[in-house]
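Help!! Second protein's tokens look totally different from the first
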Amino acid sequence: LELIGADARHQIHGAMMGDAIRERYAARVKAGLLVLRGPISPARLAERLGRAGVVAFPSHFETLGYGAVEAMAHGRVLVASDAGGHRELVRPGENGWLARAGDRAAWGAALEEVLAAPDAVWDRVGAAARATVAAACDPATVGAAKVALWEQVVAAAAPRRHYPFVRPVAPQPAVPGPATLSVVMPHYNMGRYVGEAVASVLGATRPPDELVLVDDGSTDAASVAEVYRLEAADARVRVVRGPNRGLAVARNRGAAAARGTVLAFLDPDDWVAPTYFERALAVLAAYDNVGVVGAWAQEGACDTRIWPAWNAELPYLLYHNTLNTRALVVRRDVFLAWGQSNPALVYGLEDWAALVQMVAAGVGAVALPEVLFHYRVRTGSMARRLGHVSHLYLYERLLAANRSVAQAWGPELVALVNANGPQYYATRPTEPTALAPPEDWVPPSEPGDWREAAMDPLPPSEA
């Protein structure tokens, strides 16, 4: 008997399952009657299955046993448990055998029946197993069936004007006529990057009706000249100038000056995919209870890492910024009523706080599940300068500005913190975070904080 696959922890005995098996069946292991192969490559697995007699799959709980499907795909004689989705594929005696999960007597009887069968039966069952998997598990067949089912579901539910949020969300008042789009771009001494951001906006498949470029008192001569150049180059670019008051005030100033029924925010050193505005406006038009749309983000032009975004739901939104608020598309009336940035958050997180305010007011916020926003990672940016203490201060300010919401969701927030730890560890839930210490990390001998170093390491030339 060969066991193939990765080891797992034996929760009851507090040890690895492989160690428990080796201890219990030490004599059989020593005699070579029981072999634990561990994980092997797909190529080796195919070769081993090609030489196998009977493949046993005794799982108690698989939703669809890939091991069982792989054995059938290779034309092997399979004895599998009756617990799991694979039992929908196995027709006992025709393309495999089933035995009751956890019943040793049933497994013994099934294996004896299989081993006593003549070669002709094995050949017939193996061929039938291979044909079953080819017909039932082929991606083209499964994909077509899923699309057909999805079309039935959509047809049965249409027309549906309400997006299915977890919590109740009230419809927003209808905005008459087709949507008009204003992109609001605060700018302070960003002349090196702002042209690229503006080009991405004006080159969109659904370009804005206007781009409100808010010059927040720039002092760099080259940046001031670049703003004048952009203003003269395209009639859709409208510059709003004022004294330097910070990002939050600049964003509010641009929203107040905008003429569109929908606002899209973008920092001058970032850029958007061509279809972002088109996709976002389509969602706002399709659902009466959606007032905010975001998208997944990619950091930089060369970095392959993705920041996935999720629909904004309380209470989790108080713990973690799920919607990537750096480039939201928002109904203007919603933003002016509930989403204006808090000037007290002068060091950052003002966009996250604005989203909390809108969602707490009953506005629905959804994420487009594809990369439509690109965030430029650069040394010296406002976000990269934030350290551990700065984050703690800003979280405190964010919750203070939304105290009633935080108090209403207090027990759930405590449960989340206990389960997940500090929220900044959740920035990229699908990959190891750079803010978590490595497994071999030891405290430095010199004063300092590993979190600070991890957030913005110096290039070798500056280290």
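Here's the second one for comparison:
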Amino acid sequence: MVGVIAAVVFVHSFYWFSGGPDFGARYWYLIIVPCVLLTARGIQMFDERLEDGRPERAYAATLLAGVLCLVSIATFIPWRAVDKYRHYRGMRPDILRLAESYDFGRSLVLVRGDRHPDYASAFTYNPLDLQADGPIYAWDKNA
């Protein structure tokens, strides 16, 4: 698995050598499976050490791994879920609140205003099945 990780980095190095902002996270998704497998193998090794009579090191390492997971959740998840995409590009859930309070039911709702963000905010709540019981939102482009 370490070889797979090294191979991915080696192959992408030909792409990255030119410089620029091409060092994004999307290139690292290719190594997620080897990283998960190496992590699982590490946990198995800790389990084997518990059976070898040296549990204190295994407990300490397991505790450290758990703390690192909690820290990653505490730092990454709120940034993505709460801060970064809240009202992203002016899109707001106001139409959903209106639909809940006035019970639009199965209806056609024409949204006046700009295509983005007014209609884009409503479009995300359109049902996949147009025969569903929820409202269908359409853009009222002009008179």
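Reply: Different proteins will give different token patterns, so don't panic. Residues 46 and 60 are 10 Å apart (CA to CA).
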